[in-house]
Design goal:
The chain is mainly alpha-helical. 64% of the residues lie in helices and 0% in strands. It has eight helices and no strands. Helix 2 packs antiparallel against helix 3 and helix 3 packs parallel to helix 5.
Length: 139
Amino acid sequence: SSFGMTDRYSALNCLASMDGEESVVARRDVALQKFFDDADGDALVLNKWFMCQALADLPDVLDRVKALVKHPDFTLTNPNRCSSLISAFTMNAAHFHAEDGEGYKFLGDITAQVDKLNPQLSSRMGRGLIQWRKYSEER
């Protein structure tokens, strides 16, 4: 059993990318829910919970991020919360830069919403596009 936040968060990061059989997915989801419940509303811990899921290496991670945008503890008005999910997803290179361009479309849509609330934050959200020359023109 892990006692410190560093140990617990490291373990959660490993579990967050687990995929496959239903029993594996169920254990992953239980671990994510336990971490959330144990956070007991602590803003910094919840930011880590959102970030961990945005960085997960799962085939449906973009759909998961879109669902988390609708989570009751997520808000675009809190810069740290917004960064913990949206900006973290842009660091998930394989999924953000997917060839279908859906990661870019999502970022564009959400950045437009954030820009109305906090232009400074929305300008920082584009950092994931800085190395655009590394990717093919199809994206």
